[in-house]
Amino acid sequence: MPANRTLSAVPAATAAKRKNAPREDEDDSGSDSGSDVSMINVDFDFYSFTPDVDLIALKRLLRQTLSQDDSMIDVHPLAELILSEGVRTGAGSTIKTEGEESDPWAMVAVLDINRNRANPALAPFLDYLRSTLPATSPISAVLDPSSPSRPALTFSLRLLNLPLPLIPPLYKMLGSELAEGRKEGRDIPEFTHYLVWGRGYKLEGTEEAMGLEMDGANNAGGKKKKSKAGTRQPMTPLQAGTFPYHPEEAYLDDVATTVHTYPFKSAQPRDDDSFGVEQHGRLVLLTAAAMTSAVAAMEEACRQ
C-alpha cells in the first residue's frame, strides 16, 4: 500500500446518531434539466441497532464476508447475537440513507468473546476461525480461554462502494459507546484486544488480462491510450501482494499485532485459466491502544 494514503473521496457525514429520522421526500425542481450529468444528494445517517429491521441485511453482509465459506456457518443465530449484544451494551452503529426502518449500508459491532464463547451462536464461528490459525499465532494465544486477555470480536461490514470517510466515525462512536456503557454500569469489560474479521484478495501483479489494469492506463473516455504510431502503450502492472477489500483496514494493519490471512476452505483450486482475483479471509489483532491509534489515523487521512 502507498505510504501516504488518503480516504477523502467525499465529505463525511456528521458523526452523530439519529434516534428517529423518517424518510423525507425532496423535489428536484431546482436541478438543471438540460444537464447531461445527474447529481443525487444522499444523506448518510448513523443509527443504533434495530434488530427486527437490521437482521436480514446483517445476514447478507456476513455471507458476503464469508465468501466461498458461507455454507459453513449458520449466519442467522450469529446475526441475532451480534444485534442483541449491540442492544444490551448500547454500542455499535449502522449507516442508512432512508431512515431508521431502511436497510443498513454498513455496520460496526463487537462481541465480548469471553462472555459469549460458549454461546451456540458464536462457538461454531470461533471454531471456524481457530481452524485457520497456526498454533503459534498470537491470535491463538488471545483466544485461549485461559488467557487473561479480554478480546472483542469486531465486525466491520459494509457495501464496497460506501464513501470511505463515513467509516472512521463508526469506529470512534463504538469506542465512545463502550466507555459510556461502562460508566452506566453495563457488563462491558475493558477490552485489551480487538480482533477484526474481514476478507481480502491477492494479486500476483499480472492481472491485466482480467481487466484489472490500473486507472492510469485508461484515458477519460475509458479507451486505452495509444502512442503516436497508433500502438497501445504497455499497461502498468498491478502491485503484487495481499490487500483488504476495505481500504481503511490498511490503517489497522499498520499498527496491528498481527495480520492473519487464510484461504477459504470451500474455494475451488485455482489454475492458469481461473478468472478473477483470489480471495481470502482476514483476521487483524490489535491492542486497545493500537485500535485508538488506527482510528485517529483514519480520521487524519479524511481531513487531507
Task: Give an account of the 3D structure.
This protein has 8 helices and 8 strands; from the N terminus they run βααββαααβαββαββα. The protein is α+β, with helices and mostly antiparallel strands and 304 residues long. It has a single domain (45-203, 237-268, 279-303), classed as Aminopeptidase (3-Layer(aba) Sandwich), CATH 3.40.630.30. Strands 1, 2, 3, 4, 5, 6, 7 and 8 form an 8-stranded mixed beta sheet that branches. Strand 4, helix 6 (167-183) and strand 5 (193-203) form a beta-alpha-beta unit. Helix 1 (51-66) crosses helix 2 and helix 6 crosses helix 8 (288-303). It starts with 44 loop residues before the first strand and ends with a helix. Residues 1-14, 20-33 and 207-233 have low confidence and may be disordered. This is Protein BCP1. Residues 1-34, 216-243 are annotated as: Disordered. One of its GO terms (biological process) is protein transport. Belongs to the BCP1 family.
Describe the secondary structure blueprint for this structure.
Layout: E1 45-47, H1 51-66, H2 75-89, E2 93-96, E3 106-112, H3 113-116, H4 123-130, H5 138-143, E4 151-158, H6 167-183, E5 193-203, E6 241-244, H7 249-255, E7 258-263, E8 278-287, H8 288-303
Helix pairs in contact: 1-2, 6-8, 7-8
List keywords for this structure.
disordered N terminus, eight-stranded mixed β-sheet, Aminopeptidase, 304 residues
CATH architecture verdict: 3-Layer(aba) Sandwich
Instruction: Give the helix tally.
Output: 8
Characterize the largest beta sheet: strand count, sense, and whether it forms a barrel.
8 strands, mixed
Q: Could you say what the CATH topology is called?
A: Aminopeptidase
So what's the overall shape?
A: globular
Uncertain spans, ≥5 residues at pLDDT below 50?
1-14, 20-33, 207-233
Top CATH class: Alpha Beta
Helix content: 25-40%
CATH superfamily: Gcn5-related N-acetyltransferase (GNAT)
Q: Give the overall pLDDT as a whole number.
A: 82
Using only CA atoms, what is the Rg?
21 Å
Class by alpha and beta content: alpha+beta
How many distinct domains?
1
Question: How many angstroms does the end-to-end distance come to?
Answer: 17 Å
Tell me the series of helices and strands, N- to C-terminal: EHHEEHHHEHEEHEEH
Count of DSSP strands: 8
Residue fraction in strands: 15-25%
Function: Involved in nuclear export, actin cytoskeleton organization and vesicular transport.
Organism: Dioszegia hungarica
InterPro entries: BCP1_family
GO cellular component, one term: nucleus
